[in-house]
Amino acid sequence: MQTDIDPRNLIGLKAFDRKGTKIGTVDEVYLDDATGVPEWAAIRMGLFSRDAFVPLEPSQLVEGVLRVPFDRALIKDAPDFGVGRHLSPEQELQLYHHYGLDIAPPPQLHHDFDQIADPEDA
């Protein structure tokens, strides 16, 4: 997805699945904590339905609508974390797995203090 799009411009857009079936309306946009790039959209799937999270990276903004490359049924079955709250890294990982998207885990900081050289050995 284009990274130069203001996430506020996505709110209120209609969203469609890969078959062209209407999913709903973009209710909220979630930014990546590290980069500030829009990463997830919460799609309101009906008047009295919950919001479903969809990844923005494989999605496309085409002619004023959000095209999501997944079936409506898969989107509807996405984990429900509620909206208006921060997504934890664990919740994001669950969403990535739900959509079958591979992401590289963040690098682990590993300190092997036993390998620190003694200054007298240098």
UniProtKB/TrEMBL annotation:
Matching Gene3D superfamilies: Photosynthetic Reaction Center, subunit H, domain 2 (3.90.50.10)
Residue span, PRC-barrel domain: 8-72
InterPro entries xrefs: Bac_photo_RC_H_C, PRC-brl_dom, PRC_barrel-like_sf
Database matches in Pfam families: PRC
Any single biological process term in GO: photosynthesis, light reaction
Domain of life: Bacteria
A GO cellular-component term linked to this record: plasma membrane light-harvesting complex
Protein name: PRC-barrel domain containing protein
Species annotation: Streptomyces phyllanthi
